[in-house]
Write a structure and sequence with these properties.
1027 residues; alpha+beta; binds zinc ion
């Protein structure tokens, strides 16, 4: 499935060693804060910079609080087959609460004599338990003395009066009941509106509720998206159907006082990975305990039921009151893990197509199907299936695949075998949407889930500690599949941008875990949930890319085919993969490795972090060490990790034979460079290794000069690596900022937006825009950067002026043009400000005009910024317009904080207090937006302090915590902290005060460190600004 949860708190690391002690104290304090402000996880709203939704997985909820500690099961009994009946007691239009009941008969093989049967069960009420056997004697019973639930262990324990005998088979029979919640885990219920259905029912449209008329102040889900906006997981709907999403919020969970039953449809779906199967039926809920399943679902006759296998029978039955239910029976499944079983009961429509005998059906709300939103998914599913089948040379073993777009879903998507579930936004595509970024995202997510049909479903990891065998391998293949169906996407660029670059930024903390953990470390459900992170997905995929590079794709795929064939319908661990690769390597002599596959790969998967290679090309010496923060002296002591590193390299534009660095340092005579300044070396070509490179000054100068003369001599992905590595090396104390800046001189000739995005993200981080402006750096940066940005700015501005649709296939423009334009306007480029005014004025003249979405945030912000109260008032009017989408509302909410006149900002904040002007749960967002602006932060602080009694009553102390976090960005002195302290000392409890003070102290030291960096950068720019 898509990654769940983040990697937790990220604390910046630019500070000096003296921070170590402070950091510890801070962490302790933050733990206290986390307990106090458990709901403060969501980021403060961001300043007016990017960005259209980047592809990837929609933000999922964190680890479910309901998950208990769980326990591993004893191995005396192994499941062979389940007969499972589920009966969700749901009728359309019925009010809750809802329950489901079920019966499961599990055939088990006894491996060792025992008088207890232990299986997983959580949150279920077990009604009865019987044990039959030994088989074939179903008539014989083994008497159950006691059926016991162990809540913490998530177990059901059957104490037996007789013994089960080794080598014999028995049937455990359990009847059970459970609650059907709307929590998106286990078996859950979702309410939604469907225009396709509701029109027939004569649905009424309701306006947005009057702010303040609901008890929003007591809403438990702050901070969150402001209500009264569309909250859509759908692609933007055309105006004619835009109201349906509106209804969802009017009648959704937040508005319990409106009778929802009258207007809504309901569906039941499941999400069982990793350990929720046990909340739906008692089972042996471990991935290696595979079995076959006969599934039967009892449901209302107006619904259709789906499960992993095709339905083979639909019949009727009457309940105890004589009312009729439908019973849908599914064919026997293949041998599979419990977490992959799946159930959907809905009244969706579908479209269908058959690919090589595999019946593919895409299910969605009737309205979405009718409007063609599922057509793109249908068009690409079959081709990706065939692509993967051909590539892996292993057939997809099921006769059908259902793909279901769920209006509400916690994970981005889930790969259940034969019944894949998606968030609507991961599957539905508006045919009129011309731009490819959403298509690309759907293709990527689709490929990911289809990849799982082999990696995860056919062959499953033995235990969750090797989750990367599921998720890492699949995250690699998702890009192969996506670029196959969308060939305009550039595989290596998108892979670096989406996978390698983000995880390199994360995988350098001391506490970061290794990719594969030892089995005994991953015991409880919490440890297990934390594995669904960027290390598993992105590092797993990066390591896979490296493996494929040094083996050659041909050998790599051949080994995977062997591995898939060997472990089909079974389980494997990491060593099994290495063994099968080794077999393929041993059977040929083209590719020679310096050590066994296991030795090489264990160095990457069993150690945390990654190496940085330091070069001395005068001698040809390359050394390696773990990439850690040099500024933090404690960090380097205890880590002597070494990796066996494949080095792909290029000399003066020609690719060279692969080399290996298998110890801490080694001399490569072939890498010595001559006196000639045209003799240069480039490492890590084609992204072939998961590491950073620290070049010596001599080579770096030559590369910088080469970039200035002929940037295309270095492949685009290598250019971005050079720059990304240089800034990361600066940040971690390996090199000085001046060295990184040398590599930016060529940028006037850089036409790749994804490279510009990395440069700008390093030079103008979006949450520092306002603070950067206060320093001597800004005018220099303005002059230096604008000169270099002009060519690419004008290139894209001409499209915006003349034909924005021509950017339809420019994927990175859809992701990063906003950053480029936002920075240009921030730097005061007159062209950019004029463009913003012009497009904004055009919108004011004609509210039906659509500002190109690629730069809508920038245009609205600077349209308001360079305008007067007239422009601001228009933004306010459009914000309150009922047809405005949620995304546009957020853009406008942010744009109104861009005003440069203090009184407008003050009035804006005052609006936030009003009971009638504003949906009041937007107020925190308004305050935070204003607080991030250099003009606004003092005004916002004064506003918060003056109105604290009212604000704290409505939003609690959480708001103050969020505001102080933003204020921290502006803190450089103790006096500034004391100013803030005067206020919060009077409002917070002592432990809260301590935590906040430490946070501010820490931020201050960070800010001071950053200021030193700014001074260095300013000095360098002073010397180079006229070049
Ligand atoms: Zn996945």
């Amino acid at each position: 499935m898509g990654p769940r949860g983040g990697r937790g708190l990220y604390v910046g690391r630019r500070t000096a060693a003296l921070l170590a002690a402070l950091l510890l104290a801070l962490l302790a304090a933050l733990l206290a804060l986390a307990a106090l402000y458990g709901r403060c996880r969501q980021e403060a709203p961001t300043p007016p910079s990017p960005s259209p939704a980047a592809p990837g997985f929609a933000a999922p909820p964190g680890p479910a609080a309901a998950v208990g500690s769980g326990r591993r099961l004893p191995r005396q009994l192994l499941p062979l087959h389940y007969d499972l009946e589920l009966w969700p007691r749901v009728r359309p239009g019925q009010a809750g609460p809802f329950t489901f009941s079920g019966q499961v008969n599990i055939t088990v093989r006894c491996r060792q004599d025992t008088d207890t049967a232990v299986l997983h069960s959580s949150g279920l009420r077990s009604l009865r338990a019987d044990v039959r056997g030994p088989l074939p004697g179903m008539g014989t019973a083994v008497e159950v003395a006691e059926l016991r639930q162990e809540v913490a262990g998530e177990l059901a324990v059957l104490e037996l009066r007789g013994r089960l005998r080794a080598g014999r088979r028995y049937v455990l029979q359990l009847g059970f009941e459970g609650r059907l919640e709307e929590d998106l885990d286990g078996l859950f219920l979702t309410r939604y509106t469907d225009q396709g259905r509701s029109r027939q029912q004569g649905i009424r449209r309701y306006p947005c509720p009057v702010p303040g008329s609901h008890s929003l102040a007591q809403s438990s889900s702050w901070p969150h998206t402001c209500l009264c906006s569309t909250g859509s997981s759908l692609p933007p709907l055309p105006a004619s159907v835009g109201s349906t999403q509106h209804l969802k919020y009017v009648f959704g969970h937040e508005f319990k006082d409106v009778n929802p039953m009258q207007f809504q449809s309901m569906l039941i779906a499941s999400q069982l990975e990793p350990t929720y199967a046990r909340t739906v039926y008692p089972c042996f809920d471990e991935p290696a305990m595979k079995a076959t399943f006969n599934i039967r679902i009892v449901h209302d006759p107006s619904y259709v039921a789906l499960s992993n296998m095709p339905a083979i029978d639909v019949s009727e039955m009457a309940d105890e009151n004589g009312s009729l239910w439908t019973v849908t029976t599914f064919n026997t499944s293949l041998k599979m893990s419990t977490y992959l079983t799946a159930f959907v009961v809905c009244d969706f429509d579908y479209v269908t197509r058959t690919e090589r005998g595999n019946e593919i059906r895409i299910w969605a709300r009737k309205e979405a199907v009718r409007n063609g939103y599922v057509d793109y998914a249908l068009n690409i599913t079959g081709p990706i299936f065939s692509f993967l089948e051909d590539l892996l040379n292993v057939s997809y073993p099921l006769p059908k695949t259902d793909l279901v777009a769920l209006p509400e879903f916690g994970a981005g998507a889930m790969e259940n075998w034969g019944l894949i579930t998606f968030q609507e936004s991961s599957l539905l595509y508006l045919p009129s949407d011309k731009f490819t970024s959403r298509k690309a995202m759907i293709a990527i997510i689709m490929s990911h889930e289809l990849g799982h049909q082999w990696f995860g479903n056919l062959v499953t990891m033995n235990w969750w500690n090797d989750l990367w065998l599921n998720e890492g391998l699949t995250s690699y293949f998702e890009y192969l599949g996506a670029t196959f169906v969308e060939p305009k996407l550039s595989l290596d660029k998108i892979f670096y941008d989406h996978v390698v670059q983000p995880v390199l930024r994360e995988d350098n903390e001391i506490g970061v875990r290794s990719l594969s953990e030892s089995e005994d470390k991953i015991k409880d459900s919490f440890a297990l949930m934390s594995l669904f992170d960027s290390i598993t997905y992105n590092k797993g995929a990066s390591i896979t890319w490296m493996l494929s590079c040094f083996l050659s794709e041909k050998l790599f795929i051949r080994a995977l085919t062997l591995y898939l064939e060997e472990f089909s319908f079974s389980n494997a661990n990491q060593d099994d993969l290495w063994t099968h690769i080794q077999m393929v390597v041993d059977a040929q002599d083209e590719v020679q490795l310096p050590a066994s596959v296991k030795q090489i790969m264990d160095s990457w998967t069993c150690q945390n972090g990654f190496p940085v290679l330091t070069l001395n090309l005068t001698t040809g010496t390359i050394s390696q060490e773990q990439f850690l923060n040099k500024k933090n002296e404690n960090s380097t002591d205890s880590y002597n990790n070494t990796w066996i590193i494949p080095i792909s390299w290029m000399r003066n534009g020609s690719s060279q034979p692969l080399l290996w660095l298998d110890k801490s340092s080694k001399v490569f005579p072939e890498m010595q460079v001559s006196e000639s300044e045209y003799d240069w070396i480039l490492l890590n070509v084609n992204l072939s290794g998961y590491y950073r490179v620290n070049y010596d000054q001599l080579n770096l100068k030559r590369l910088a000069r080469l970039l200035e003369n002929d940037p295309k001599a270095i492949p685009a992905v290598s250019r971005i690596q050079l720059i990304d590595d240089a800034f990361a090396l600066t940040q971690f104390g390996y090199i000085e900022i001046e060295t990184a800046l040398e590599l930016t001189k060529y940028l006037a000739k850089e036409d790749e937006l994804f490279i510009w995005n990395v440069v700008l993200s390093n030079l103008v981080p979006k949450n520092l825009e306002s603070t950067l402006k206060n320093y001597e750096l800004y005018p220099l940066l303005k002059k230096y950067l604008l000169k270099r940005m002009l060519p690419i700015y004008h290139y894209y501005a001409s499209f915006i002026h003349q034909n924005v649709d021509a950017l339809e296939d420019d994927y990175f423009a859809q992701l990063y043009l906003e950053k480029l334009f936002g920075t240009a306007c921030w730097l005061g480029l007159q062209d950019c400000l004029n463009l913003s005014s012009e497009l904004y004025a055009k919108w004011m003249d004609n509210p039906d005009y659509k500002i190109p979405f690629l730069i809508r945030r920038t245009v609205c912000c600077y349209g308001v910024a360079v305008g007067s109260d007239k422009e601001w008032n228009f933004a306010w009017e459009m914000y309150n317009h009922s047809d405005t989408t949620k995304e546009d509302k957020d853009i406008l909410l942010s744009a109104m904080s861009c005003a440069r006149e203090s009184w407008l900002l003050y009035r804006y904040l005052q609006y936030g207090l009003s009971n009638t002007l504003f949906s009041s749960n937007c107020t925190p967002n308004v305050i935070l937006y204003v607080a991030t602006k250099d003009i606004g932060h003092r005004i916002a602080w004064e506003f918060v302090t003056e109105n604290w009694p009212l604000l704290s009553e409505r939003y609690g102390k959480e708001l103050l915590y969020e505001v102080l976090k933003v204020m921290g960005r502006f803190v450089n002195t103790d006096v500034q902290i004391q100013e803030l302290q005067v206020f919060y000392n009077a409002t917070l409890e002592e432990d809260e005060r301590v935590a906040i003070t430490l946070l501010l102290e820490f931020t201050k030291v960070e800010n001071m460190g950053r200021r030193e960096l700014f001074i260095k950068a300013a000095n360098w720019l002073q010397k180079n600004v006229d070049d």
